Amino acid sequence: MKMINIKIDNIDVTVPEGTTILEAAKKVNVNIPHLCYHPDQAIKANCRICVVDVAGSKKLTPSCSSYVFEGMEVQTNTKKVRDMQKGILELILANHDQDCLKCLRNGNCELQSLCQRFNISKTNLEDTVDALPLDNTNPSLVRDSAKCIKCNRCVEACQKGQEVYALTHSHRSVHYNITPAYEAPLEQTFCVFCGQCSAVCPVGAIVEKDDTAKVWDAIHDPKKHVVVQVAPAVRVALGDVFNLPKGSIVTGKMVSALRRLGFDKIFDTNFTADLTILEEGNELIKRVTQGGTLPMITSCSPGWINFVEGRYDHLLDHLSTCKSPQQMFGALSKSYYSDITGIDPADIYTVSIMPCTAKKFEAQRPEMKTNGVQEVDVVLTTRELGRMIQSAGIDFIDLEEGQFDNPFGIGTGAGAIFGATGGVMEAALRTAYEVITGKALPDLNFTEVRGLEGIKESTIDIDGLELKVAVAHGLGNAKKLLKQIEKGESPYAFIEVMACPGGCIGGGGQPIKSTMDVKAQRIDAIYQIDENLPLRKSHTNPEVIELYEKFLGEPLGHKSHELLHTHYKSRGMKYNFKELME
Amino acid sequence: MNSTETKGFGILTKDLATKIDTIINYYQSDSTKLVGILLDIQDVIPKQYIPREVASYVSERMNIPLSKIYDVISFYAALSDVPRADYVIQLCDSVVCKVTGNTDLRDAISSILGINEGEATADGKYWLEYTPCFGACDVSPAIRINGKVHGYLTSKDSVKAVLDQYQ
Amino acid sequence: MSKTVSFITENFGKYDPNSIDSYLSIGGFTAVKNALAMSSKEIIEIATKSAVKGRGGAAYDTGRKWSQAASVPGDNKVVICNADEGEPCTFKDRNIIEKDPFRLLEGMIIAGYTVGAQNGYIYLREEYRHLRSLLRNAIQQTMDKGYLGDNIMDSGFSFHIHLYSGAGAYVCGEGSTLIESIEGKSGRPRIKPPFIKEAGLFLLPTLVNNVETLAIAAAVLQNGVDDYIKYGTPDSPGTKIISLAGNVNKPGAYEIPFGLTLREIIYDIGGGIPDGHKLLLFQLGGASGKIGSANILDTPYTYQGLAKEGLVVGSGGVLVVDDRTRVIDFVKSIQDFFIHESCGKCTPCREGNRQIAKIIDRFVEGNQKPDDLHTAERFANIMQNCSFCGLGETAQSAFLTAIKHFPEEFGIQQEVAK
User: Fold this and answer.
1) Are residues B102 and B69 in the same domain?
2) Number of folded domains that form chain B
3) I need a labelling partner for C288 at 20 to 30 A (CA). Which of A244, A487, B79, C398 fits?
4) Which of B34, B64, B75 minimises the CB distance to C187?
5) Is the minimum CB–CB distance between A270 and chain C shorter than 8 Å?
6) Using a CB-CB distance cutoff of 8 angstroms, which residues of chain C are in contact with residue B77?
7) What per-residue confidence (pLDDT) applies to B5?
């Protein structure tokens, strides 16, 4: 690799060719201010706050989009540079609703940090906040254009990563805005509510819909028996909120915190992840052996379900009919759990802690009812749980290690890895192999389906039965596999899709600043949990076995169908032009 | 407008859909020709605009995300996402016409038609909008009506004579 | 004696622009024939000798641009004719297309041959939609006669021309933005690198030239470069089509030799200012251009002469404003234009224009605040230094030069007096 020698603030630094000034500056411990720059995204150079002075250039140079050249001399901190960076910040602020104290991103806002850094106290500019109406009519996300700084990170996440294209930039000049087409509310678009936009927004312009007040109300309502389930990906990310090292495993502290918050029972979604494997694994075996629609595709990820129901409704038969682990838990909480505790389902209040904003949408689907009540009453994202813990004044870092409650407190390693891309596939293969062959797997680790590569594939030999499988994370990658199916060229029997890049550990409801680096550390943590568990195969989960014995009967049985499976339908977007297109 | 209007598609009738198909086919459904395609489509839509249902139809026909089409429609001044009128009057608001008397020209149009900038006459016939320089500075002050330039409009009579051509 | 000349415009009115036969009868396509008999290198040498600078406004040396484009590796290159003449007070390209469309096509074919391109694109602004059929017809007839298409005149060189329409966006005159528009997208500038000469339209090596630049290339290839550089001054040889308008008696597009003074342009060619009014100011090169006042009317219209006064040729627009307009109203009009035309992508241009417009509005009303001028200058400076593209960089040229030429209009004298 060719190395380039440059000077930044008179400090010599040597970096590989193709390095930007912004990246090179980090090497000499200079953090050039930036807003539209995001390490996982294409360079945008919109916000211009990263301008620096390059010797020989009349104008200032955007450091995020300018590459180093031999002999380059950069100044990042001259009067001119500072004045101009500060001026750009003032320009942004003048068109930014400054209700910072009431903002969900208060204290965790990149614009706020820059204002602090530049000591913005007064400006000669007049504030003019030019905003579209608040978009808050969907269950998952709130878009407030009054706070939007037009950095386009959300557009990048929505269009390039996810290929959903719900959001775009539109209009021009002072009317330039980030919006769905025709300023429609998100639920009238192909938005899948994955929330990747909210995860990359530097400010509070796109946030999760905050449902913490509902949960506090339920906890404080003496008539309600409030149970909570926690998804596998939350325990490796929640620590970020409390500045623990990235990828810290905080399962025990999290359980303790939930108990202190006042939840009556704390359960583990890893349990229903295991349950999902038994249902989905058997569904796959049935489809393979009895000639059902193949490839079968996983259905755990509600953003993914929304995607197929929206744009690919002709492929709905490929989806596993299994509800997601969240909804399986919800259904059991309002049936089996009600049976064994004698609590009326109407008095049981089921809360989910999820890494995901689409889970909020999923929980509110009208078909997600059991015994006449909604299966999951409220979904909180990891970020919201973090806020509840902070709000309760709990000193998280020093909490004792708590334990999940029974009867949904045991999860195997297979359930744990549901949080990472490839995890559902690996868990399914562990069980499918042993159920079909009746033999113990020689090696539980299906490493081919692990990792951050966009599409992974593998062929598993199950006693002579060759099973070709694929794993995709990020909807752009999933789309490629769908196109194969559309053309009738899909070689796979089974496909795992998680809507978010990296899988649930990279979910749209995870703590802010979940960059790919951070996601990799969370994935490591997930597999570490798996390695350390005594049980690593879903079908060996004693609570799951007991559940089938006492209540469900058998996988794909009558009760399972009633409680644990669902059906999909076209999302019925606004126009169906088929009759015009004859 | 004809009576074959399909329920639920707003102004997008089967007839209009056929016209749109013809335009898209003329451009070989080439997504790089989107700007030209939208201009042509707007020309065949009464009131010269592109409503959501039409943009959605183009999106499905050409397999371009609706949001990208909306970005284009909202970006370009010659494309409108709100209904205008049978005759779109574009009054040059650039500096050349400003110094040659476009304020008087504007007042003349307003008083003849009773509309201001961004408004249509009650009968839906005329729409008035400001537009930047369209390169007719040599005949300034000037207007365009449905794309045709009319210049030297320095008196109310001259304005009236031009408007009378569009009935 | 007329001070205008006729080199680029020599064909104007001499033939029927709807008919290639008519064009051939006056010697049409001689330029292409001459060019095809030469090597790319020879043509670049001629272009270099002509010293033509890009006529869209950026004034980049054409010989150099062609030489770079020719040396970029690639067997599939593109020539774009920028016919998005968006600068206010600029209509010379319209005149060329209207009166001599075939010469423009010749220019494109020559450019394509010189740099090794297979495809040419004309990006015609929507405002000139009435010229679409004229150009489409000219392209078709040229194809039919074999001057366009595969293996032109058995030279082995193949070239096709495609006509694309803009839809009303000044910013699309900027090269990368124009390319976005041809690709069917909204017109917002691209990040450089990659530079469009290496990866432009459809990521192919791309040469973008203005209509007038291409027309000159054809005229020079037809008549010989010496015939061109005999006009003008040693520093700025050749001719230029200016678009003269505003408060002058005879507005129009005129071809002039470089070196006439601004006074000659406004008073001799333009016939002076109507109704006995006095010159207030003039603006050169369109809305992004700088302004000058009556005391520099004897400046020669050459690149170097204008530069001495801080002015530029730009698009060749010459806007004359008389004393019926207030300086601040002129500035406001320019500001309104940029508020309409900023693409909104980058902060300095989007928000800077918004804020400066508010301040200018206060000056118009006469209720400016004490800090307003300082604030406006500060942010104009930020726009010049930090904007994404040329639009934001130049949007405040008129305002800043108005302050320089008419300080009293902005209350500066009073401040000094204090």
Assistant:
1) no
2) 2
3) B79
4) B75
5) no
6) 167-169, 340
7) 37
Q: Where in chain C is the domain with CATH 3.40.50.11540?
A: 20-229
**How much is the ipTM here?**
0.94
Whether A189 sits inside 8 A of B67 (CB atoms) is yes
Instruction: Report yes or no on B149 lying in a domain.
Output: yes
How far is A472 from chain B, CA to nearest CA, in Å? 22
- The residue among B47, B75, B103 that closes a domain is B75
> Which residue type sits at C56?
G
Query: Above pLDDT 90, what percent of chain A?
Result: 94
Which residue, chain included where needed, has tokens 């408004």? B119
Asked if C185 lies within 8 A of B144 by C-beta distance, the reply is no
Of A169, A171, A580, the CB nearest to B17: A580
Neighbouring residues of C142: CB distance < 8 A, sequence distance ≥ 6? C20, C102, C105, C148, C161
- Min distance A170 CA to chain B CA atoms (Å): 4
Q: Are strands C252-257 and A177-179 parallel, antiparallel or unpaired?
A: unpaired
Structural domains in chain A, CATH included, are: 3-93 (3.10.20.740), 126-208 (3.30.70.20), 212-564 (3.40.50.1780)
Both B65 and B131 in one domain: the answer is: no
- The segment(s) of chain C belonging to CATH 1.20.1440.230 are 327-417
pLDDT value, residue A465: 87
Q: What are the residue numbers of the active site of A? A: 280, 283, 300, 320, 359, 362, 367, 504
pLDDT for the residue B153: 95
What type of residue is C27?
G
Question: Residue A127: pLDDT above 90?
Answer: no
Mind listing the pLDDT tens digit for each residue in A500-551? Answer: 999 999 999 999 999 999 999 999 999 999 999 999 999 999 999 999 999 9
Of the residues B133, B140, B143, B154, the best mutation for testing chain C's interface (the one with the most C CB atoms within 10 Å of its CB) is B133
- Look at C334 and B135 and tell me if their CB atoms are within 8 Å: no
DSSP bridge pairs for C382? none
CA distances from C22 to B77, C12, C119, C215 (A): 37, 12, 26, 18
Q: Searching chain C, which residue's CA lies closest to the CA of residue A150?
A: C345
Q: Which of B8, B12, B67 sits opposite A166 (nearest CB)?
A: B67
pLDDT of C414 reads: 52
**CATH, domain C239-322, list 3.30.450.40, 3.10.20.600, 2.70.70.10, 3.40.50.2300:** 3.10.20.600
Query: Looking at chain C, which subunits does it touch, using at least 3 CB pairs closer than 8 Å as the criterion?
Result: A, B
For residue A325, which of A425, A419, A210, A432 has the smallest C-alpha distance?
A: A419
B2 inside domain: no
Alpha-carbon gap: C113 to the closest alpha carbon of chain B (Å): 25
Question: Which CATH number is B104's domain given?
Answer: 3.40.30.10
pLDDT digits (tens, 9 = 90+) for A290-337: 999 999 999 999 999 999 999 899 999 999 999 999 999 999 999 999
Cα angle C211, C216, C219 (rounded to 5 degrees) comes to 130
Of the candidate CATH numbers 3.40.50.150, 1.20.1440.230, 3.30.1360.120, 1.10.10.10, the domain formed by C327-417 belongs to 1.20.1440.230
CATH number assigned to the domain covering C20-229: 3.40.50.11540
Whether B70 and B92 share a structural domain:
no
Could you tell me if A120 lies within 8 Å of chain C, comparing CB atoms? no
pLDDT (tens digit per residue) in A131-182: 899 999 999 999 999 999 999 999 999 999 899 999 999 999 999 999 999 9
Tell me the three state secondary structure of residue C232. Answer: strand
- B70 → closest Cβ in A168, A579, A581: A168
Q: Is A168 close to B53, i.e. CB distance below 8 A?
A: no
Three state DSSP letters for C267-278:
HHHCCCCHHHCC
CB contact under 8 A, A125 and C355: yes
Measured CA to CA, the distance from residue A124 to residue A115 in angstroms comes to 15
pLDDT tier at B10 (50, 70, 90 boundaries)? confident
Cα C264 to Cα C272: distance, rounded to the nearest angstrom: 9
Q: Where are the alpha helices (DSSP H) in A95-210?
A: 110-117, 153-156, 196-200
> Which residue range(s) make up the domain with B99?
87-163
What is the DSSP pairing of strand A73-75 with strand A51-54?
Answer: antiparallel
